[in-house]
């Protein structure tokens, strides 16, 4: 059964860009009415379930190609009324070495917390937070990916907490030299996550840190143990 025109029009008005893939919407409507048992006449329930499915999905599946972002190299323009998702996230106000050390401390704490039953009471299992200065993102509309930075602090976005696939609605943001400048007044965080992206988040985060370190020390190899003599000579103060 085709989605009712009222639902299609509501989606177009609520999420102007990117356009919703008609095939995805039809399959989503069938799932909601047939599998979940929602009446095709219950517009409010249909609307709620469709929006939830949209925000949980990958925009690569639910959005029509090339109907969201402008040219990724755009400059001096604004993006308005566009839904996108976080596909990468890191902190650029602190060194890759600092972030790498905090990540390892978090892994160690998580391992200790998993063994809590075998350890003495009173042990501190709290997971350390990443330092916070300025976040950098890669945002996708399902087809194109654009870089973005936290131009003004956005409290609801946090490295180590915000999952990949988190949807952000860009109400009105500026683009300069291919970079989207994010600030609280210009966006609405919709939340949710995409399982496939989230499962690979740590792997991509570590790879990004290694690339940053290699750019500082191109003669060093980070695939194995570092040569301590090289580090003493090359390592700057952070």
UniProtKB/TrEMBL annotation:
Pfam families: RMI1_N_C (PF08585), RMI1_N_N (PF21000). GO terms for cellular component: nuclear body; RecQ family helicase-topoisomerase III complex. One of its GO terms (biological process) is double-strand break repair via homologous recombination. It comes from the Eukaryota. Residues 17-62 form the RMI1 N-terminal domain. Residues 80-203 form the RecQ mediated genome instability protein 1 OB-fold domain. Belongs to the RMI1 family. This is RecQ-mediated genome instability protein 1. It comes from Rhizoctonia solani 123E.
């Amino acid at each position: 059964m085709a989605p009712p025109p009222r639902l299609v029009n509501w989606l177009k008005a609520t999420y102007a860009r990117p356009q919703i893939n008609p095939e995805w919407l039809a399959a989503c409507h069938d799932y909601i009415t047939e599998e979940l048992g929602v009446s095709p006449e219950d517009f409010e329930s249909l609307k709620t379930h469709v929006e939830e499915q949209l925000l949980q999905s990958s925009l690569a599946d639910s959005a029509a190609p090339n109907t969201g972002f402008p040219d990724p190299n755009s400059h001096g323009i604004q993006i308005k009324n566009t839904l996108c998702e976080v596909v990468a996230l890191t902190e650029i106000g602190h060194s890759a070495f600092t972030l790498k050390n905090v990540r390892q401390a978090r892994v160690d704490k998580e391992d200790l917390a998993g063994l809590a039953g075998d350890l003495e009471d009173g042990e501190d299992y709290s997971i350390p937070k990443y330092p916070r200065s300025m976040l950098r993102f890669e945002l996708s509309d399902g087809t194109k990916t654009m870089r973005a930075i936290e131009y003004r602090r956005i409290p609801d976005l946090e490295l180590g907490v915000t999952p990949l696939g988190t949807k952000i609605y860009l109400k009105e943001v500026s683009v300069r030299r291919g970079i989207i400048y994010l600030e609280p007044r210009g966006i609405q965080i919709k939340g949710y996550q995409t399982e496939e992206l989230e499962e690979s988040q740590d792997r991509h985060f570590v790879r990004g840190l290694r690339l940053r370190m290699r750019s500082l020390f191109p003669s060093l190899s980070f695939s194995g143990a570092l040569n301590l003599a090289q580090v003493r000579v090359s390592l700057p103060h952070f």
